[in-house]
Amino acid sequence: MRTNRKTARKAAAPVAPRKKKNAFMNRDKEGHGNKIWIDPDALSVECAICFTPFEAEVFMCKNGHAACAKCCVRINRKCWCCGKPIGDMRCRPLENVLAEMNTHCRFSKYGCTEVVKYIDKSRHEEACPRAPSGCPVDGCTYRGLLLYKHLLDEHSDAVVFVANNLPATTTTLLSLHKSAPFRVLVLERATDAGEGEGSVFLLLNGGGVLSGRSLSLVRLGAGDVEFGYKMEVRGSEPGVLSLERTAPRVRELEGFEAKMFLFVPDASWAPTDRVSVSIRIG
């Protein structure tokens, strides 16, 4: 039987191994990787329950509906869409795609130039030094990076100034009305801080407790420096109530709940609905 020469050549020709395609990186002629970029608001890579970007772990039910780990617990491990169990099966392909994705910080319009992994986006924005702060004064719509300067220029009559670099025994004394939700405190710039700005604090006068009010201190805006404080309250009842903590940093008051606070009972506010508060920061 004669063998077709073309067939023989094809059979003898070595077969080059197929290169495995990289699903997440396209290589140009020089071999450089071209990163994948995404729209930060793309719904396809956000949890359909909490609408926040997926992080490293993504879970799915047998029908392929995805949810983040926190939401799996929140919905009692029952799929939000079809009711099947969810929380045991990881969505590995989507996790691999997310791990290769890059995006810009959402505060880029305020000057942040960071390029971050998509799965790290939330953590970065939580601590981003270019995140703006809204003015806490009622009716003011200011939102920006110069909150300290804004308060000094526009609301100096509505804030309490706290001097910095004073002896540890020096405190700031103020009167607080029971109905006031907060008082704005401005810690003046330290004498050795150069051109840096001062810090803005809020003395929160919260509800949510029976037969009294809850007082706490928070710091508004960005910054890595931690500030300790000591607060003492004197009311109509004899004695002094005190609290000594580190002021947590918050961007917005909406949704914030103080984990540690000073309980001031109703009896301390009577009969004038006011208490005297002394505060030392730093």
What does it look like?
By secondary structure, this protein is α+β, with helices and mostly antiparallel strands. The strands form 6 sheets. Strands 11, 13, 14, 15, 18 and 19 form a 6-stranded mixed sheet that branches.
Give a nutshell description of this structure.
The chain is an alpha+beta fold.
Q: Ends: how far apart?
A: 98 Å
Mean pLDDT: 81
Class inferred from helices and paired strands: alpha+beta
DSSP summary, beta strand count: 20
Radius of gyration over C-alpha positions, nearest whole angstrom = 29 Å
The dominant shape is: globular
Q: What is the count of helical runs? A: 6
User: Spans with pLDDT under 50 lasting ≥5 residues?
Assistant: 5-32, 191-196
Question: Considering DSSP H and I runs of 4 or more, what fraction of the residues is helical?
Answer: 10-25%
Largest sheet, if any? 6 strands, mixed
The helix/strand order is HEEEEEHEHEEHEEHEEEEEEEEEHE
Strand content: 25-35%
GO molecular function: zinc ion binding
Region (Disordered): 1-24
Protein name: SIAH-type domain-containing protein
Organism: Urochloa decumbens
